[in-house]
Amino acid sequence: MHHQDSLSRTRRLLLGGMAGAAALLGVPRRGLSAAAPEAAAETALTADQVFNIADFEALARAKLPPAHFGYVASGVDDDRTVGVNHEAYSHIQIRSRRFVDVSKLDTSRMILGKRWSQPVYFSAVSSMRAFHPDAEVGVARAAASRQIRMMLSTGASCAVEEVAAARNAPFWQQLYATNDWQVTEAIVRRAQNAGCDAIVLTVDVLPGRNTETLFRAMRQDTRVCTQCHVGNSHDMVGRAPLFAGLDVSHVTDLTPLNMSGDYLERLRKMVSVKFMVKGVVTAEDAVLALHAGADGIVVSNHGGRAEETLRSTIECLPEIVAAVGGRIPVFIDGGIRRGTDIFKALALGATAVGIGRPQAWGLAAFGQPGVEAVADIFTRELQIIMRQAGTPTLASINKDHLAWPKL
To answer: Residue 374 is part of a domain; what is its CATH number?
Structure first.
């Protein structure tokens, strides 16, 4: 039932336009006048007045053109893995504890040699200018103001140097390695020179993804967009600033189809900062990444955009945690919408969690303040459940605080 509700909500948002978005937010129908629908759909809300993460999705839909909302909403095939990613959290219960001193909470943690104030980072989302003119620079400023780590996409709308200046602190660079080693080397070198302290290789995006929701949204959108798409091209390699000045004539795929353990070892030797692998969903691949010298693993199915396997990332997490045995940190993204979701991931062994779509929704709805509000909600909700579960520190969160209902 949860899964069906999740899917119908997104589809209604996509097809219902501003009226549908406002209805899902509880805005009275009479407030949507036929004479001025755009103005009517604009509520008087400020970013800090939004109740929860899910409401930002409806607000983003009210602001965005169909294709841009379709881009962030789309999974593959029937979008079922998108829904499963979040639904799986609803099958995990939290065991509350009462007789623990939680007068002081500490959400900080040492991760890869750095002190994080909270176990959350903004994951890589490409083409953020599709959601707001400030694009990745707005996200970087929000990350700076909330002291949250940021992972920058290879397909970012803004130059890496511009984002680094806005973040004013080390960041992670997500990497689509492409099938051209010279291009890969150039991207890594530029990101490292700009101040990134980790390269995060994405391994789950292969050619031939069937992003039906995006295709349907594009049919509704008749605009010719040249602001984001040079020559109206949707080719990342041809438009993303990180590829500017490079000879990309030999690039045909974002992910090498011959990727193996040997490839990972070669890339590990070339990277001079921390090296992580994103898109791992099995113990076997986690062990290969570990043996190749990875400093961290991100359990991810690209938010349901990489594959229609119907296997959520939270279900994949335990076997990967067990496989690496504490030798390197394990991160997770996909479907995280509540502070309780963060808590459950930490209890199952995640070091920290990545936030993808919610930052795009917040940016679309309000710009930088929207991204900050998303971060604030996650922080507040995590602190609330930590008190209820009797866990004053992140280190005190473990599997003993979870339960699963009998089916």
So the answer is: 3.20.20.70
